Amino acid sequence: MKFNKYTLMFALAGGMMASCEDVLDAPTQSSMDEATIFSQYTLAESAVRGIHQSFGETNSYRGRFSPYYGMNTDCEWQNGGDATKVPDGGKYDLTSYNPTSNNSQMNTANNAWAKFYEGIERANMIIRGLRTYGNVDNDTKMSQLLGETLTLRAMIYQDLIKAWGDVPARFEPNTSETVYVQKSDRDSIYVRLLADLKEAGTRLAWPMGSDMTKTTERVSAAFAKGLRARLALYAGGYSQRPNSLDDKAGSSVRLSSAPELNRKAMYEIARLECTEIIDHYERNLTGLGSFEAAFRALCEDDVTAGKENIFEIPFSEGRGRELYTWGVQHETTDKYTGQNKGGINGPVPTLYFDYDEEDVRRDITCVPYTWKDGIQTITGKSKLYSQNFGKLRYEWMKRVVTSTNDDGINFLSMRLADVYLMAAESINELEGPTAAARYLKPILDRAYPAAKAEKILTAATASQEAFFKEIVDQRKFEFAGERLRKMDLIRWNLLGSTLKQTKQDLMDLANREGKYADVPTTIYWKNIGETIDIKGFGHGLISEEEAEALKMDGYTEEKNFMKMDVKYIDALYVNDPDTKQFWPIMDEFINTSNNYLWNNYGY
Question: Residue 32's pLDDT is what?
């Protein structure tokens, strides 16, 4: 099957490529056409950019994967989650470990599963064309395109495996003979992707190292190497696995049995790739800035490479729902948004109180107010158990929102802090905490006052076990709202136990028991200009004298603070999360697979 030049020309003109079925049905072109496309840099580069189209389509990353994958954890949940709600029950089923194969959000022909494989098919055609006609071993720009495409394909496969477990492996363009294929053991896919990303790392320039890597919207060596480290940790970690691919019910949470994916080997890959990235950044680039700066840059559309943000899935101004889903809620249309959106997903209410009060990440990550009529407020839809993530804020944008539902903010796929913490984790496992401390220290120094950061580091280096526990905590506090936590908990074999403890913590917070006994049940707030000042939101009870003084100073008294209906706590998970680590393949794709696809895990 040859690449269809008409399909490609349509992609260049309209920003879209045809589906696999369209390509199969189109008239076959001569090999001369493919040779023309992939021997000319301009045409080949446009084809690579066409992969991005699959990311931004309505039910792909934009409207299905980003809003729903990674929920619910000990730091992220869907605000107001209630699986009994109609017509939104399908949304809550996806996040509460209760999905079905006819889920109302995912069971459509144009959904994430289809769009991910659409992107893979485009990548497969480009990789074949570049290897055959692109002179990639002698032309550095064509080599860069090959490295970029290998990396994008690996990223899509990573997300397929995260969401569905074992999936079909497609590494060549579709033909009429291969349009139907069965699932492959994910281990074989991991092995292939780790090799692909190793090659990609040798072909790609570093951030700011070429015209193509001056932006975080294009793949660099740093992202390929970081993605390889991330995949290695996933491959070497725990996950729910069927007893065999054709066992639809029996499964267990276990490590891979593939010798080449043993934990030590995977930690060695992560150490190698992460330390190389860090060494390059510390010698040549800006590296870590302030915690807030990374997210302000994202909201300001600052895609300059070489700083903390390593790679972002690009959305145009009229596509992408990152703020809509993960940003601070605006209850009414106002000067910042042009939308009344945001706050669909938020922090688990206990998260704010689990941060150290001097951790600078807390007040950036967890926001207890919404915007209404141009001012911050806790009235209206804000119940205070439904907080907002504050890493994405309409008020940080430098442009007007041009759509009623989309905001155009990019999907942040990787930042440098993740590389430091992956390095710290892998080196602790291989060499111990003393050697690993050098990579944890920058994260602590940025988050805490110097004395407190040193105290935490000293306690962490007491043992390998203590250091690992600190990694578990710091990855929660660092990446809450960035959709990394669920897979982290899975690979550490901590998903079920952690969510069980989180549900108990939520009950303790609601009842003001245990470690939340000193959280006030009444808070006080007032507006100062358009901003809000809240007293009593944290550990430490307010005395009667303090309360009277606050009311005299114009603060409104808000009683029954953080009063939570048990149905929202119960919605954190419906089934044991360790039995539902993956979504089912939807009926739409099972029923059109010619009996080649099936579901495991008891679906």
Answer: 53
Q: What is the 3-state secondary structure (H, E, C) of 357-389?
A: CCCCCHHHHEECCEEECCEEECCCCCCCCCCEE
HEC sequence for 428-461: HHHHCHHHHHHHHHHHHHHHCCHHHHHHHHHHHC
User: Are the CB atoms for 366 and 387 separated by under 8 Å?
Assistant: yes
Q: What is the pLDDT of residues 446-500, one digit of tens each?
A: 999 999 999 999 999 999 999 999 999 999 999 999 999 999 999 999 999 999 9
- Run of H or E residues at 288: none
| Averaged pLDDT of the chain | 91
- Kindly report, residue by residue over 49-88, the tens digit of the pLDDT: 999 888 888 888 888 999 999 999 999 998 877 656 655 6
Query: Nearest-CA neighbor of 352 among 458, 250, 480, 183?
Result: 480
Centre a 10 Å sphere on the Cβ of residue 373 and count the other Cβ atoms it contains: 12
Long-range CB contacts (< 8 A, 24+ apart) of 461-464?
A: 461/433, 461/434, 461/437, 462/433, 463/433, 464/428, 464/429, 464/432, 464/433
**DSSP character at residue 477:** H
Q: Is the pLDDT of residue 30 over 70?
A: no
Per the listing, tokens 């009870």 go with 541
Contact indicator for 323, 407 with CB cutoff of 8 Å: yes
Question: How far is Cα 462 from Cα 202, in angstroms, rounded to an integer?
Answer: 38
What is the amino acid identity at position 378? I
d(CA 324, CA 193): 32
What does the H/E/C string look like for 492-558?
Answer: CCCHHHHHHHHHHHHHHHHHCCHHHCCCCCCEEEEEECCEEEEECCCCCCCCHHHHHHHHHCCCEEE
Q: What is the pLDDT of residue 397?
A: 93
Q: Are 575 and 566 in contact (CB under 8 A)?
A: no
Tokens of 547: 């309360």
DSSP 3-state of 69? coil
pTM of the entire predicted model: 0.94
Handedness of CA 259, 261, 267, 272 (dihedral sign): positive
DSSP H helices, 71-139, are 89-95, 112-133
Distance CA 585, CA 596 (A): 12
C-alpha 436, offset from chain centre: 25
Instruction: Give bridge partners of residue 309 from the DSSP assignment.
Output: 415
Q: How far apart are CA 492 and CA 40, in angstroms?
A: 46
| Residue 127 to residue 246: CA distance in whole angstroms | 31
Peptide bond into 72 cis (omega under 30): yes
Q: Across-strand partners of 375? A: 372
Backbone torsions φ then ψ of 67, nearest 5 degrees: -70, -30
Query: Per-residue pLDDT tens for 328-345?
Result: 999 888 788 888 889 899
